[in-house]
């Protein structure tokens, strides 16, 4: 068996950073279970894993339903995936 190519296989989902305007109270933060929160002077930053696109849309819907102002959504770089070795043939 010879090595033909190495392909990086991305994992499903990813880690996201979501910024909302203002400082969220502890009771509002409970709506984002599984996410870590840090409070900056004018916004709250949520960090955490998002399983898939449906999960991301669910978070965004929750932000809107709570009347929060969305500032930014960013997918964070993944850790390098394990290379998948494809045999020649």
Brief write-up:
This protein has about 90 residues and is an alpha+beta fold. The protein is built from two helices and six strands, in the order ββαββαββ.
What are the key terms here?
single chain; 89 residues; alpha+beta; Alpha-Beta Plaits; two-stranded antiparallel ribbon; 2 helices; 6 strands; 19% helix; 42% strand; globular; disordered N terminus
The average pLDDT is 81
Oligomeric form: single chain
Q: What is the element string, with H for helices and E for strands?
A: EEHEEHEE
Shape: globular
Q: Count the beta strands.
A: 6
| Number of separate helices | 2
CATH topology descriptor of the domain at 14-75: Alpha-Beta Plaits
| CATH domain class name of the domain at 14-75 | Alpha Beta
Alpha-beta content class: alpha+beta
Q: Could you tell me the radius of gyration in angstroms?
A: 18 Å
Query: Distance N terminus to C terminus?
Result: 9 Å
- Spans of at least 5 consecutive residues whose pLDDT stays below 50 are 1-11
The biggest sheet amounts to:
4 strands, antiparallel
Q: How big a fraction of the residues is strand?
A: 35-45%
Order of the strands making up the biggest sheet: 3-4-2-5
| Percent in helix | 10-25%
The CATH architecture classification of the domain at 14-75 is 2-Layer Sandwich
